[in-house]
Amino acid sequence: MYVTLVQVKVKSEHLDAFINVTRANHKGSIKERGNRRFDVLQSTDDPCQFVLYEAYESEADAKAHKETPHYLAWKEAVADWMAEPRRGVLYNGLFPK
Q1: Is residue 49 a contact partner of residue 43, using CB atoms and an 8 Å limit?
Q2: Under a CB-based contact definition with an 8 Å cutoff, are residues 74 and 68 in contact?
C-alpha cells in the first residue's frame, strides 16, 4: 500500500467550512480506483489540527487522486484556510495487504 499522512492546521474561523469540503473530498476519494482508506482525523487537543490518512493500492493510484475533480475542488477551497502549509508524509503500508 502507498500511504500518505497529510497534516493540516486550519484557521479557526474556517473550521466548519473546512470540515464540510473535506467531507465531500472524502466521499469522492473512497470511490476512487485503488483507494483502500481515506480517513479524516481531528485532534482532540486542538480542533483545528487534522490528519488525513490516505491509503492507495499503488503510487499511480495515489497520483491519480490528485487529478480528480473532488480533490482539485478541495485543494482550491482550502488554500486560504490553512494556518500553516499542509504537509504530507509518505509511508509504505505493510499490514493489512
Answers
A1: yes
A2: no
